[in-house]
Amino acid sequence: MGRAEPAAFVTRLGRSAFVAVILILCVTPFLLVFAISFGEKIEGAAWAWGFEFTNYKRFFVGADYPNTTSLLYLKFLWFSLYYAMFASILAVATSFPFVWLMTRQSRRAQTCWLVFFLASLTLSEVFVVMGWDILLSNRSGLPALFKEIGITTWLKESGWLDVLRTWGIASPRNVRFKPTEFATILTMSYLVWPYAVILLYPPLSKINNELIEAARTMGAGPVTVVRTIVLPMVRKPLVGTTLLLFVFLLGTYVTIAVFAAPDKSTLSISVYEAVRGATLNAPFGSAQAIILLITAAIILVLGRIAFLPDEGRR
Amino acid sequence: MPDLIMSQICKKYGSVTAVENANLTFETGKLTALLGPSGCGKTTLLRMIAGLEVPTFGDIILAGESIVSKSAEQRKFGMVFQSFALFPHLNVQRNVSYSLRISGVDAAMRRAKAQELLDLVQLGDKGERKIGQLSGGQRQRVAIARALAQEPEVFLLDEPMSALDAQLRGDLQMQLRLLQQKLGITTIVVTHDQREAMTMADQIVVMSHGRIEQIGSPQEIYHKPANSFVANFIGNANLLDGVATATGIRVGETDIAVSDRDEFGAGQRVTLFCRPEAVTLHDTPAKNALPGTVTFVRDEGPIREIHLTTPAGDITAEIPGSFEETVKIDDKLHAILPENLLHLLPERAHDQNEAAR
């Protein structure tokens, strides 16, 4: 008994210390943001603690409600979700066939690809966006190249330029990628592509080759094998990866700042403006961040219920 | 349906030859076992038949038509894999009807066919089960039903019993043989278990190091092996090196008479083959007897295995088991080798002999 008690005490102490560290590192910043969101901005100064719902009201119906109603921040929230959802789906949809083919290659080739993608993660968002900015720039990027080599002329003559205009990626004179939703989603999906590859690689590489061969001996061609065997077997990792990338992309800042039109901006831009930018309204910025976080949580839960019913019940 | 023929089939992986000049005919409706130790090329041969591997050289002919350039999905030979390869995301019934679903058969017919096959393998009430809820034996039977659903021209099984325990294996070998006879489907089974091959096959193909060592019925393979590798791989064998004489073989200082010695000329180095159950033990010398000392006795219940050291080499004899201890270690006995049950084989290569063990 004499020895058991100190051991149990040490274990309890260790657990308590662990919980304390988690609380300090993870929960405290969130609680601070949550508390500040109920604070009050003081004109010409910073902000003061308080407990009022002004910031939340402003988010949903505007500061001047009920005289006027503004849905500006709800629109920002919508674009946050819209960009993140399409970019994450695009990243997963395009990386899946790539990873599948990669797992069918030799071990050596797979290792080379994985090292390449892990290395590409060291590129910062700023660096990636700069590259795409140059590539899609109206004066020096693809539009200029198209014009130089005659594609623009062909697009005009064939009527395709008008089609591209209806899609929002052309002006009367040439293709135009900035600012467009197309460029925003494309760049966002590029940002998370390596993550999609790294997340999809383990489940796809674990698929027993005999399952594929068994399907082939029963008359299944490559497409049928993927459709009827591979995709159903990795349904959960596909949904999980999409949800993870979606949450990750909700906070994208630089890509939105460079490629999205101002009227199609997102909450991450608005939050930065409030906390560090021109408007300097930390309580309102905090309220926006909290709403974004709650929305993300709701979508994650709904996603699990809709696409992973077995997991949801556990 | 005409036979399946493999003509001069070779398979090389870089500088390694997995299968060398295989010429085989698989008779319609018969069960053939490809038998050999690990790495002998039997699975590669099966995979080439299935279309999962392309031969480096040679032709595969079915119904008079070359199928060597056809892919696995075009051949549609039903195959049972060593791991069974059942689809974990589908239940038993959907696994069995998979081939019908992808070929566009309507749902009602699919269900009826799957039920018929599940009844055939005695799993009629397990259609809704998940694969993870089945035992090893049940999984094997689902894999068989699934492979048969497409009514293949050739039915292939790659070591289908290796993952099962000995008791279950014995039962399923019998069931599979009965099922094959009932359906009359050309069947090829890969196995390294000689008992399994003997139980099920009409024809056994013994392979070693990518080469076919012998093709024959189970009785032929057992009683008249073509060489010392086959003799050693199928059951237990006494192999004694010696020199052929006009009447038989001289092993050590003893002349042994052999009835069946046509192929070999006097003076040629040969190996004498005799099954342990053919050897009898006597206290006194007799014709075709080798004097020896008992070194080990293994009692297996119905039989007793007696190991002797003789001047010509080690001999094993099998005698009926009994409650009383009739033979003891260090007993001096004579091993009688019956003339009509002895065979001469080409001189064995000792490294090959080791590989078989």
User: Largest interface, counted with CB-CB under 8 A?
Assistant: A-B, 18 and 28 residues
* CATH superfamily placement of the largest domain in chain B: P-loop containing nucleotide triphosphate hydrolases
Poorly predicted runs of chain B: 352-357
Q: What is the CATH-assigned architecture of chain A? A: Orthogonal Bundle
Structural Rg of chain A = 25 Å
In CATH terms, what is the fold-level topology of chain A?
A: MetI-like fold
Largest sheet of chain A: 2 strands, antiparallel
Proportion of helical residues of chain B: 25-40%
Number of continuous helical runs of chain A: 16
Shape field of chain A = flat
Estimated structural class of chain A: mainly alpha
Estimated share of beta-strand residues of chain A? under 5%
Determine the mean pLDDT of chain B.
91
How is this fold's topology laid out?
The complex is a heterodimer of chains A (314) and B (357).
Chain A: H1 4-36, E1 40-41, E2 47-48, H2 54-61, H3 72-103, H4 107-120, H5 125-136, H6 142-149, H7 151-158, H8 160-166, H9 181-205, H10 209-217, H11 222-233, H12 235-250, H13 254-259, H14 267-275, H15 282-307, H16 309-313
Antiparallel strand pairs in A: 1-2
Chain B: E1 4-13, E2 16-26, E3 31-35, H1 42-50, E4 57-62, E5 65-66, H2 72-75, E6 78-80, H3 92-96, H4 98-102, H5 107-120, H6 136-149, E7 154-158, H7 166-183, E8 186-191, H8 194-200, E9 203-208, E10 211-216, H9 218-223, H10 228-233, E11 238-244, E12 248-251, E13 254-257, E14 269-274, E15 280-282, E16 289-299, E17 303-310, E18 313-320, E19 332-336, E20 343-346, H11 350-356
Parallel strand pairs in B: 3-8, 3-9, 6-7, 7-8
Antiparallel strand pairs in B: 1-2, 1-4, 4-5, 9-10, 11-12, 11-14, 12-13, 14-20, 15-19, 16-17, 16-19, 17-18
Helix pairs in contact in B: 5-6
